[in-house]
Design goal:
Blueprint: H1 3-12, H2 15-24, E1 29-30, H3 31-35, H4 42-54, E2 58-63, E3 66-71, H5 73-109
Antiparallel strand pairs: 1-3, 2-3
Helix pairs in contact: 1-4, 1-5
Amino acid sequence: MSDTLSSVFGALADPTRRAILQQLMLGDAPVAELGRPFDMSQPAISNHLRVLEKAGLISRRRVATARLSHLEASRLKEANEYVERYRRFWTESFDQLDDALRTFQCLDDEPGVEHDA
């Protein structure tokens, strides 16, 4: 896994940071607004924002006296593409299992075939 993906998945490992990203899907927001739903100090929220920024999941800019955070969705796209490869693997594996089960069911349903009870 590349360093970029490691930092993205590390940042996503925390539920507070995931919730912050979800808030930012609605638009840019200042620290105070992002911290409102959480029972934690503004410095704690700022620490979460630094982790997200270091992972490239958000960018921050000043507008007058406010410092707004902005979702950088391209990093999420990279992580999604990585996870998608495994989703395809598991889907194909389950499809193969379904095929095998159907084959065994058909054999099981053949007349004249005795089964142990």
